[in-house]
From TrEMBL:
Species this protein is from: Mariniradius saccharolyticus AK6
Name of this protein: Phophatidylinositol-4-phosphate 5-kinase
SUPFAM superfamilies found in the cross-reference section: Histone H3 K4-specific methyltransferase SET7/9 N-terminal domain
Taxonomic placement: Bacteria, Pseudomonadati, Bacteroidota, Cytophagia, Cytophagales
Length: 150
């Protein structure tokens, strides 16, 4: 096992981690040019396998699980302004599968049912919130911090 690092032209670290027989193996880190962490990933013999953490503006944005290079398992997405969970659900073979929960502050606003990355139905819409989405949401920056203490 050997440690490695790559660098931006200005000398800041771009990626760092370890390799085994020339392939990424173990924990790997990617950084933005300003030095802030972007990704923290787990590799097994060159293939993404395990938990991936993504950061934006220095704050946790997503936690996704990978198996054999594909998203597989539970994923959570957070509002970077306040840290609130705003979306979570499962992946199978890199496609959204099963129930996905959208939150507004601490409350569930909508529950979607997915099959092979397609919305099958809207299972629940909280009457306290207006759901303007025509299809299920992908992770975005959203202003739900106002309701964190509802």
């Amino acid at each position: 096992m050997e440690n490695f690092a790559t660098f931006f032209p200005d000398g800041m670290v771009s990626t760092a981690g370890s390799r085994y027989q020339g392939k990424l193996h173990g924990r790997a880190f990617s950084f933005f040019e300003n030095g802030e962490k972007w990704l923290e990933q787990q590799y097994e013999f060159g293939v993404l396998d395990g938990e991936q953490l993504e950061y934006r503006d220095g704050k946790l944005f997503s936690v996704e699980n990978f198996q054999n290079g594909q998203r597989d398992g539970w994923a959570r997405y957070f509002n970077i302004e306040c840290g609130n969970l705003f979306l979570e659900g499962g992946y199978k073979n890199d496609k959204r599968e099963g129930y996905w929960y959208e939150y507004y502050g601490p409350e569930i606003s909508t529950i979607y049912s997915y099959e092979a990355d397609s919305v099958i139905s809207v299972v629940f819409t909280n009457p306290d919130f207006t759901n303007s989405a025509d299809s299920a949401p992908l992770p975005t920056y959203r202003d739900e911090c106002c309701c964190a203490n509802r």
